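Support case: zinc ion complex. Customer-provided input:
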Amino acid sequence: MEKIYMIPVNDAYNSADECPFCFLKNKAENDYLEYYLGPSLMEPDTRKITNKTGFCPEHMGKLNKSVTNRLGLGLVMHTHLKDFHDDISKDIIAAAPSKAGLLKGRSSDYKSKLNDIADRIDKRVAMCPICEKLNDTMRHYSEVTAWMFIHNDEFRKKFSETKYHCLPHTSVLLRQAAKLSQNEAADFVSALASSSDLAFNELIGDVEYFTLKFDYRNSDKPWGNSKNAIQRSMRFLSSDRRDFDEQLGKKQS
Ligand SMILES: [Zn+2]
Ligand SMILES: [Zn+2]
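Agent response - structure generated as follows:
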């Protein structure tokens, strides 16, 4: 088992106040964002990849928010746009069907051609080396998590006491559990399932309380844990913390 992944997994389960996998993901993502904004941006091998892939919409947004290395980002954008243009523009132009006239009959060929080009654009827009690295790293983390759960009593206890894993990361861990032997999966999934059930119940209760607070008869009651129940639910459902922090919610209300 790869030891380099054990320390961060242990740290996450020790220090995360919400989903430990979100904690791991945010940390890895920040490292990769920094990597792509750093000197690697000028390395020919990296550029060969980013010329082709660019970045997905989410990671372009995150790169844009970072103020460092605007020149590097500009150079990547320039070569990526050129690569995309060379690949697709002439085909978009050629895809315009000729008008059906008396001599040229009607043809439905153009429909599949248009859909094919749209598919190619969608596929390229979604490509992202940061997503790829991140998915790979999260896969290692889930392997290590299951391995430590099986082999290390202390970690097993920690995992079982985890308040919750968000749903996308519950899914990652369930896929990992599917690779285990039946006996190993039995314990691992039981621990995961009970924390997931607790999290659902707690959030359902807190969000309901939040909505009841809008009833004037409850206006004097304390908010308790319900004040950030919406943001916590969003993080539970999506794993992404960026747009769901409590500060943004406050500004809007
Ligand atoms: Zn998560
Ligand atoms: Zn991405």
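The pocket of zinc ion (ligand 1) is lined by residues 19, 21-22, 165-166, 169, 239 (CB under 6 Å).

Case will auto-close in a few days if no follow-up is received.
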